[in-house]
Amino acid sequence: MSTKDRLSSRIVGLEVRNTADDAIATIEDIAFNENGIDGYILSVGGFLGIAGRYVAVHSSSIDLTYDRANNQWRATMNASAEQLKAAPEFKYPSNT
């Protein structure tokens, strides 16, 4: 395996930035289907370490790139914080 492999531990917790380089969300979880990654669950609207709420976005909405010089992943999205805050809330299914 290469150090730049897409391990979930390298992606979950990653800050998502928009094209203006503003921090707009954090990747909290990854949704899979039988073909691979289906989407990302983002935490938006949080303040001082307290998550605001979750939204789900399709996997094609986020551009993941690897910065070889800094040995890290970078997540970008063509959206604003306001657009994500206005998106429908994602709620994890209950196990009960």
TrEMBL record:
Its recorded name reads PRC-barrel domain-containing protein
Where does the sequence pass through the membrane? none
User: SUPFAM superfamilies per the record?
Assistant: PRC-barrel domain
Question: In what residue span(s) does the PRC-barrel domain sit?
Answer: 8-63
InterPro entries hit by this protein:
PRC-brl_dom (IPR027275), PRC_barrel-like_sf (IPR011033)
